[in-house]
Write a structure and sequence with these properties.
The chain has about 150 residues and is mainly α. It has one domain. About 50% of the residues lie in helices and about 10% in strands. Helix 2 crosses helix 3.
């Protein structure tokens, strides 16, 4: 039995108007800076539209950080401070985009919480910096056109 899957029009518009290169292949959602491409599993592999759009918007947030757009440091390795900060920016940005599209947000990368806490413990202003970067990421998707 197939589960009905209804797309969110506003989320589709955000993704389409970003003009990001989104490819539906593979088994996990990820953004590849070297190819400047977002990879997502086929929509049919998600049980709900919300389950598809939350990671799609998270990866779109990473896409905004590429050099020709906001030029964030996307080279950090898992566990590094740079990686933790980029993941925090992407989570916040995705949360803002999900709220805009009226999609229940889903924490996509709970294993990163420990690294976020290390960053936040060392820099009390890091959350404000990450939130400001997330706001820039949302702006680059040009929500005004929606």
């Amino acid at each position: 039995m197939s589960i009905p899957w209804n797309p969110h029009e506003s989320a589709e518009q955000v993704i389409d108007q970003s003009e990001a290169d989104v490819r539906h292949q593979g088994f996990q959602a990820l953004y590849t800076p070297s190819r400047d491409c977002i990879y997502l599993p086929q929509r049919s592999s998600f049980p709900t539209a919300d389950g598809y759009y939350a990671p799609a918007l998270h990866e779109l947030s990473h896409w905004t950080g590429h050099k020709p757009r906001l030029d964030r440091d996307l080279a950090g390795r898992f566990g590094s401070e740079a990686y933790a900060v980029e993941e925090l920016i992407a989570e916040l940005s995705a949360a803002f985009l999900c709220a805009h599209c009226r999609i229940p947000g889903q924490l996509q990368h709970s294993p990163y919480i420990a690294s976020w806490l290390r960053v936040l413990k060392c820099d009390k202003r890091a959350i404000f910096t990450a939130a400001a970067q997330a706001q820039k990421a949302v702006r680059i998707t040009d929500l005004r056109r929606l």
